Amino acid sequence: MKAKRKGISYAKYGYLFVIPFVVVYLIFSLYPTLYTALLGFTDSMGLGNIRWDFLKDDPFKNFSAVFSNKTFMTSIYNTVTIWLMNFIPQLTLSLILTAWFTSPRCKIRGQGLFKVLFYMPNIITAATVAILFNALFGYPVGPVNDMIKALGGETFDFAKDKEWSRLTVAFIQFWMWYGNSTIVFISGVLGINPEIFEAAEIDGANGTQTFFRITLPNIKTIMLYSLITSLIGGLNMYDIPKVMRNGGPDNSTITASIFIYNQGFSGRYNYALAAAASMVIFVVVAICSITIFYLMRDKDEIAQRKAEKAALKAWKKKNKEAAK
Predict the structure, then answer these.
(1) Sequence-separated (6 or more) residues with CB below 8 Å from residue 177
(2) Whether the Cβ atoms of residue 178 and residue 118 lie closer than 8 Å to each other
(3) Which helix (H) or strand (E) element contains residue 292?
(4) What are the residues whose beta carbons fall under 8 Å from the beta carbon of 72, sequence distance 6 or more?
(5) Which of 28, 182, 223, 259 is the most exposed, having the fewest neighbouring CB atoms within 10 Å of its CB?
(6) Is 7 exposed, middle or buried, given 0-12, 13-18 or 19+ CB atoms closer than 10 A?
(7) On the CB side of 307, how many CA atoms lie within 13 Å of its CA?
(8) Based on the number of CB atoms within 10 Å of its own CB, is 61 exposed (0-12), middle (13-18) or buried (19 or more)?
(9) Which of 106-110, 168-172, 208-212 is the least confident region?
(10) Percent of the chain, pLDDT > 90?
(11) What's 182-231 look like in SS3?
(12) What is the mean pLDDT of residues 116-125?
């Protein structure tokens, strides 16, 4: 008899390759998250000054203080407002550019150059962009004010106006990320089977019908990814409003992340309150993400799965009755 050859299992190599990621994740992500969650129930006022028996007294005191803090509620309002002000135009322009670049009727020359130019703001560091726009909107001397003066207008201090400060931060966020969204959407469209577009063209569909009936439904998953990542990044917005206005003027650009930083590292060292605010933001992001996933779920696929389960159940029941 021939000896039975044993198959070679490569599963163990997969585990070996995963070990570095798991170790790094446990040390630098999971542990800090759990420790931060625990700090929110203490009265920590700096390193080495944590009273863990505070858990027995009033463990939710910090969370109550967070929700009763007017500055924190203002920061939540600013964060959501600035995110919406930049994400809606960003999504709109990205979809328009995607339709433009991927349309078979529009033969655009130098597409690679356009894509590089659109994506370039995304590779510039946020602090550099904030300093650049501070210089552009400088007062009383700056390129924008010089242009206003040349046109016969009066110079304007943008840094002291609430609405202009908020609008500037939103515009910078939009300017930095619309190129990234465009590239992601274009990649999604290029992954669609070209035969679908050819069939639509043969059936007489115009560009608008093709985009809304074929392109958008087929990049729904890509749009969901873009929405979730933008939501997470938007609710954790820190660098642009911090470097540009430091949350001002009059807390008009203070975001949740700036509030957390001010509580924990801006001379107050109230780590407990900062940790509690961090956990509140974490829960808000989780709830919003779950809600978006639920609203954008594929209803046709769910209905198909239910129909398949019902058919399988009916088939089993029929076979069971036949066996009797």
Answers:
(1) 86, 90, 122, 230, 233
(2) yes
(3) helix 271-295
(4) 66, 256, 259, 277
(5) 28
(6) exposed
(7) 6
(8) middle
(9) 106-110
(10) 25
(11) HHHHHHHHHCCCHHHHHHHHHCCCCHHHHHHHHHHHHCHHHHHHHHHHHH
(12) 87
To the question of pTM greater than 0.70 for the whole model, the response is yes
Q: How far apart are CA 273 and CA 75, in angstroms?
A: 15
Count of positions (residues) in the chain: 324
For residues 257 and 237, the answer to whether their CB atoms sit within 8 Å is yes
Residue type, 147: M
Q: Which residue has the tokens 């509140």?
A: 280
Q: List pLDDT tens digits, range 233-272.
A: 888 899 899 888 888 888 889 999 999 999 888 877 888 8
CA distance 276 to 274: 5
pLDDT per residue as tens digits for the range 201-235: 888 888 788 888 888 888 888 988 899 999 888 88
Q: How many contiguous H segments (helices) and E segments (strands) does the chain have? A: 17, 0
Give per-residue pLDDT as tens, 299-322.
Answer: 777 778 888 888 888 887 777 777
The DSSP call for residue 267 is S
Q: Give dist(CA 228, CA 291) in Å, integer.
A: 10
Backbone angles phi, psi at 49, to 5 degrees: -130, 55
Summarize pLDDT for 183-195 with one digit per residue, the tens.
Answer: 999 988 988 888 8
For residue 87, give both structure tokens: 């994400």
Amino acid at 81: T
